[in-house]
Amino acid sequence: MLTSAQIRQQFLDFFKSKEHQIVPSAPMVVKNDPTLMFINSGMAPFKEIFLGNQPAKYKRIADTQKCLRVSGKHNDLEEVGVDTYHHTMFEMLGNWSFGDYFKKEAIEWAWELLTSVYGLKKDRLYVTVFEGDPDGSGEKLDFDQEAYDYWKQWIAEDRILRGNKKDNFWEMGETGPCGPCSEIHYDLRSDEERRQQDGKDLVNASHPQVIEIWNNVFMQYNRKGDGTLEPLPQKHVDTGMGFERLCVALQGKTSNYDTDVFQPMIQFISSMCGVKYQGGSPLSLEEGLGVRTDIAMRVMADHIRAISFAIADGQLPSNNKAGYVIRRILRRAVRYAYSFLNFKEPILCRMVPLLADQFVNVFPELKAQQDFVARVIQEEETSFFRTLELGIKKFEAINEKIIPGDFAFELYDTFGFPIDLTQLMAREQHMQVDMEGFNKCMAEQKSRSRHAATVTTDDWIVVKDDDNSEFVGYDELETETEIVKYRKVKKGNKEQYQIVLSRTPFYAESG
User: Fold this and answer.
1) pLDDT for 262-304, tens place per residue?
2) For the residues of 424-437, what is the DSSP string, one character each?
3) Angle in degrees, CA 188, 193, 194, rounded to 5
């Protein structure tokens, strides 16, 4: 059986043989693009090339890119750990053509790699092509006949399925490069299950064992701010293969978490808490604690990757924007560890060295910073553990089907519970959260914060006509001084005074 490291290397070696330049992953954290907080797809680092704003150094490249999807259009957070194939941070294997080859070569090489190199069974593969959208918003997009004809050379026509705009027209976001795409799906079910139901009926139907493993996107358009499409200066190929899903298919598993990508971390968690990981598909597990302990281990094994690589790439947890996304992920993992695996002290930070060693040859930046990353995570865990128990006790005391919005806001504001964590806990108890009430409380707090942050400043009152201040901080422990001038400053409902002294220990340029 191929290891995950071998699977990754075979992909890169294959496209190197097709004259692709192998390039390293870009940082997962985005600092220079207002439309993205994190790299959410393999193509995101090459957006400016697709738009024609930046020249391509190489016409053909291949890579494995760290990606994060937990916010915005691509938001899978609620599914992570509950099912067996969604992730926060994941690897996207990709091959790219910048104005070079197009649909013919992309389709041919995809088939060659999957069937000849990896040896996937042809009778378990299905492909999709864009069915067109002739009436959609005036765009009148046509059926992708070209992709269909090329696929006919490699696979039976009854395995070429027509997909709608949602599944087969790929867009990075509300604006930017886009185009029709052709997905490749693999049926992991047993032969008996496959005889009972045709796999093509389960493609794009959220079945956990009939999964998309590769998407070939044919970049032809740019989505403008007003929603219209314009042709790109050149046609490009952007492909993305889910590394974790590919490992499932090649290692004969039914769950991403049963592969050697996640098992080292899951077995570490299992040994630390003394609970056995049952594994397999959740559909085969009996409802009860066994389901939730498995989910907890999957959540922790997944989330530690997103947290660690985000910090290593420059994003610390915080209370706003990208930093808050990382804090939400971390606190979701801590809560699962606490509630279902009985961890009462930091555990995620202890997983960082294991993760760093696992990826040292592909993403060495984590190994180089593992001590720093572990310290940051430990501080975050320790901080949340202080309020987690109290917050959970307050939550458990609620005896209502709909959790009041002001209570959900109290959990957020006082105990540090992200609202999606409160919603998750509510769903587990078959309860709901009054989100309208929560949002009202949030809006009121923001209004109070804006008012409190309003600063009004009076004019200076000059007491002594002398603008010079003598600095005595290095030479004296006490001094006599005079007020040169002062003014009143009002911040919210609080009044203060600023004063300028003739002799002072405060050095303006050093704090």
Assistant:
1) 999 999 999 999 999 988 655 443 445 557 899 999 999 999 9
2) HHHHHTT-EE-HHH
3) 70
Instruction: Give pLDDT tens digits for 82-94.
Output: 888 889 999 999 9
Q: Which 8-state DSSP code applies to residue 136?
A: S
**If residue 414 lies in a helix (H) or strand (E), which one and from where to where?**
helix 405-415
CB 237 within 8 A of CB 97: yes
The tokens for 144 are: 């992708």
Q: Which residues of the chain have pLDDT under 50?
A: 73-74, 283-287, 511
The answer to whether 299 and 80 have CB atoms below 8 angstroms apart is yes
Count the helices and strands in the chain (H runs, E runs): 16, 19
Q: Is residue 1 exposed (0-12), middle (13-18) or buried (19+ Cβ within 10 Å)?
A: exposed
Cα separation, 27 vs 128, whole angstroms? 31
Dist. CA 82–CA 87, nearest whole Å: 10
Residue 476 backbone phi and psi in degrees, to 5: -130, 145
Cβ atoms of 41 and 89 within 8 Å: the answer is no
CB 278 within 8 A of CB 372: no
Terminal-residue alpha carbon distance, the chain: 61
Nearest to 285 by CA among 208, 202, 343: 208
Chain-centroid distance of CA 99 in Å reads: 29
**What length does the chain have?**
511
Instruction: Give the C-alpha separation, 107 to 218, whole Å.
Output: 11
Quote the strand ranges of 410-462, DSSP E. 432-433, 455-457, 461-462
